[in-house]
Design goal:
heterodimer; A: alpha+beta; 6-stranded antiparallel sheet; 5-stranded mixed sheet; 12 helices; disordered C terminus; B: mainly alpha; 4 helices; 51% helix; globular
Chain lengths: 369, 87
């Protein structure tokens, strides 16, 4: 009997103007691999990645982990029974605490992950960034954590306007007045709850690093990138890989200080003086991760190998000057895809011959009678 | 004085320049490209002017001023260190 291909689930199928990393991770895993079954795990039926049939073969809807961890696990167990989920690569900040909480149970189910510990996850949170900066000897813009809107009235005594108002998971708004600060606070709090992070505004070039930590204080690999074009939400829409030893050193110090295990993204500002200011550490691959793969360093594949217990050799080579430019296109999908994801919460595009161990797909080719 | 940043640049024949450290890109016209390559080669001011005169029709006095202006632009873009002087 033909051996079943490795099945890898990837979350984050949203791919709008503030895209989740899932499609980029799947594109990376599809390159240079061994024919794995790549499964998109989505939270919304209209997530664009659901309809990227050339890239994402099978798709399943997930309930939000915040609603019930048991329901979440039940759903993953069902998906495993359908497509043999061997590894999951979570890519969303908000779901990571849940994945860390159920890591052992997933392992018992036969689902491998590569996750930071809860302590590592908390240390890089926006609220603890100043402490992380001290440990990693990296400059961090002056930061104050507030829990109520009333705290904003006096925050200018510590941080001068303009400053950033940041949600605990996502979102940052530069505010110039108290009224703007109130509005930004309530918007962030409504989306993600307290605390809210107030961070001094710094100006310069935005640089990012995607990397994977080996869990023992070492850097498995990392690729730095300069954003060439930003959206009105401040998200990178184009970028280029660069060679910047100091920036890589920031990533190395972060990994060493935390013993980070798994994917991460470092966001920094390089000021005109040449100093680096650490803005954020994201605990997952960024949406632009496929740029690193295109430059020659397939970090998602290395992370999957690590999740499965391998110790990949450190990755150091990548092509400087590799460019990405995003594009918005209208994906065309058949009504059947929409019907299946809305009514059954899943789309199986796999040929049955590739998955003999599983139930036959609705999409199985039918002979013309 | 240092031209280290110039040595790292990726330079195409068309005059497109990529700085791999900063990620910045620039476009030079043929005379700018000639001057930049001459600076990379370590030529003096008079050497650069001589090379320009070989390749382009220009007056020596204008060329010296243009080269010095160009060097100042490279400084402003961080491609030459502030203490670089062309003699």
């Amino acid at each position: 009997m033909k051996k079943r291909p490795l099945s890898i689930g990837v979350t984050g199928m949203n791919a709008t103007d503030n895209p989740a990393p899932g499609v980029g991770v799947i594109r990376s895993l599809a390159e240079g691999g061994g024919g794995e079954r790549l499964v998109g795990l989505a939270y919304d039926a209209l997530d664009p990645g659901v309809y990227a049939g050339d890239t994402v073969r099978d798709v399943f809807l997930l309930p939000y982990p915040s609603s019930s961890l048991e329901a979440y696990l039940d759903r993953l167990e069902y998906i495993k029974s359908r497509v043999g989920l061997d590894v999951i690569v979570p890519t969303l900040d908000a779901e990571l605490p849940a994945f860390i909480a159920i890591e052992d149970r997933l392992r018992a189910m036969g689902i491998a992950t590569l996750l930071p510990t809860r302590a590592q996850f908390d240390l890089r949170s926006k609220a603890n960034l100043a402490e992380l900066g001290r440990r990693a000897e990296v400059n961090v813009p002056k930061t104050v954590v507030v829990n109520t809107a009333a705290d904003l009235a006096t925050v200018h005594e510590k941080i001068a306007y303009p400053f950033w108002v940041k949600g605990v998971f996502y979102g940052a708004v530069l505010v110039h007045t108290l009224d703007e600060a109130y509005a930004a606070f309530h918007k962030a709090a409504a989306a993600w709850g307290a605390p809210i992070i107030i961070q001094s505004g710094v100006s310069g070039e935005e640089l990012n690093v995607v990397g994977v930590g080996d869990g023992e204080g070492g850097l498995l690999g990392a690729v730095p990138m300069k954003k060439l074009l930003l959206t009105d939400k401040g998200k990178g829409w184009a970028g280029v890989t660069i060679r910047d030893a100091e920036l890589l050193s920031v990533a190395e110090r972060f990994v060493k200080a935390t013993g980070w295990r798994g994917a991460f993204e470092v966001e920094v500002i390089r000021e005109r003086s040449g100093q680096y200011q650490l803005l954020e550490i994201n605990p997952r691959f960024p949406a632009w991760v496929h740029l690193a793969t295109a430059a020659g360093m397939n970090l998602p594949r290395a992370a999957v190998e690590m999740a499965r217990g391998a110790k990949p050799a450190p990755l150091r080579d990548y092509a400087v000057g590799t460019v990405f430019v995003r594009i918005s296109i209208d994906q065309i999908a058949g009504l059947g895809d929409l019907e299946r994801i809305l009514t059954s919460g899943e789309i199986l595009r796999a040929s049955p011959s590739l998955a003999p161990a599983f139930a036959e797909s609705d999409d199985a080719p039918r002979s013309a009678a | 004085m240092s031209t280290a940043a110039l040595q790292n640049l990726a330079i195409s024949d068309s005059g497109f320049i990529f700085d791999p450290t900063s990620g910045a890109t620039f476009t030079l016209n043929p005379t700018g490209l000639t001057v930049l390559l001459a600076l990379r080669d370590g030529l003096s001011l008079s050497g650069i002017v001589a090379r320009l005169s070989e390749r382009f029709e220009l007056l020596a006095g204008d060329a010296r001023e243009d080269v010095l202006d160009f060097v100042q632009m490279l400084r402003q873009h961080g491609l030459l260190q502030g203490d670089f002087t062309l003699t």
